[in-house]
Model the fold of this input.
Amino acid sequence: MYPNFNFEIINSDPNSNARCGKLTTPHGIVETPNFIFCATKAAIKGLSPTAMKAENTQIILANTYHLMLQPTSEIVKQLGGLHEMMGWDGPMFTDSGGYQIFSLGHGSISSEIKGKRNSTRPNTLLKITEEGAKFRSYIDGSLHLLTPEKAIQIQRNLGADLIVVLDECTPFHVDKTYTANSMHMSHRWALRSVEEFKRENNYAQALYGIIQGGVYEDLRKESADFVNSNEFFAHAIGGCLGSDKNQMHNIVGTTMSMLSQNRPVHLLGIGGVSDIFNGIIHGIDTFDCVHPTRLARHGGALVPHSLKLIEADPSKTEHFNLLNNRFRSDEKAIDPECGCSTCKHFSRGYLHHLFKAKEILGLQALTAHNVHFMNRLMQSIRNAIKDGTLEQERKKWVS
Done:
């Protein structure tokens, strides 16, 4: 069903389940483990596709929910699909809109796992039924029904290489009965997604199945068995991953132990450096998150833990906040060992000035740095897996 796609495991870590692989798509090869940057509305905020390539990016992601509303998937198709419209010639991934169903209906998953970010968005979800999710557009209030079939049709129009079945992403605060019923509905939606995918399969796309089940091991096992036994090219771990990072790490590890080892596995919406190392140790192949680019827009420059130790930085974050006054006259690059365009040309003091002066160049420069940081991180991880030095490498990047 996927003749133009392939996943090959190249190296395995002798001390964990970490692995290096080669994910082949019609638009090129993705070396795994890798990080997928979020071009949510068909654009990376702050960087062009050319600049993304210059910082060694291999793959990016666009969002089905946002693009179905603006400019619509039909317009994207008319403009040549995402690749031609954006001017990006590398591999692309699209989600299905399922995460948005969750966030519209229950609030942001980020508030539960990744940052306690409160959302003031109006609740535009009207109803979730067996048919699909009915909601109002946040743009103009128009009514829409997103069904499993429609999600596949939209992603077919968008033209990404890697696409995802529609699911409901359940939050932490619901009970096991709700989680189980939602998971079973998501499985039925997944089967409908597969049928729609097969109906007009042009061999230019590959389909990911999603593992749900919340924090419940028996439900995760049931969902893992479901995706293992169906015609998916790859798997994605979704749904609520717990109330804190420890529980998230346990759920990821438990779920990975249940999945087929010959398919690539994606961890949806996770992008913290410590979380990436934890996922990779359990065998995760790809990650996506808005964190690196969003952080850059607020003055945050990602740096390895080893640099924070050298500079005796007291914060427990994975970044420098360049808005802090201590950087005002700092002549150093963000990271002297970083090879990004920003660290080659700009000082911390200049970047501090750009943000204080509200110059767009500041967010562009920090976005380039954070993108390069993530790509540098993933390359170092791939090298460490090959060399059997993953734990030593982890200590350079994580406190």
In short: Residues 298-397 form one domain.
